Amino acid sequence: MRQLMTTVTRKGQVTVPVEIRREMGIKEGDRVTFVVDEAGIHFKRGESVVARTAGLFKGRGPRLSAEQLREIAELGFVEHADRREEE
Predict the structure, then answer these.
(1) Which residue, among 14, 81, 85, 80, has the nearest Cα to 43 in the 3D structure?
(2) 37: left (phi over 0), alpha (psi -120 to 50) or beta
(3) What is Dmax (Cα atoms) for the chain?
(4) Are the C-beta atoms of 24 and 33 separated by less than 8 Å?
């Protein structure tokens, strides 16, 4: 078993050690979920909003993956920003 230590800031924040971020695939902006159960307290990489809500509503076309939905949303944000700049 490995143990890695970090410090809690005044705001209650901690830095996840780089070894853990790499192992879990956590990147800047990712969410993490703290899990409290009978085994103790641990955390896991959280799902994105897109991944959690993919397939929630029925559509007319084929189902898209969370990654495809994310790409479409990003394109929409860019188009919206471009339109705002033109105004």
Answers:
(1) 14
(2) beta
(3) 58
(4) no
Any idea what DSSP says for residue 33? E
What burial class does residue 16 get, using C-beta atoms within 10 Å of its C-beta: 0-12 exposed, 13-18 middle, 19+ buried? middle
DSSP H or E stretch at residue 67 = helix 66-86
What does the buried/exposed string (b/e) look like for 24-55 if buried means 16 or more CB atoms within 10 Å of the residue's CB?
eebeeeeeeeeeeeeeeeeeeeeebebeeebe
- Say which residues have a Cβ less than 8 Å from residue 33's Cβ, sequence separation at least 6: 43, 44, 45, 46
Query: What are the pLDDT tens digits along the chain (87 aa)?
Result: 788 899 999 999 999 999 999 998 888 888 888 889 999 998 888 776 666 666 666 777 787 788 888 888 888 888 887 777 776
Name the residue type at position 43: F
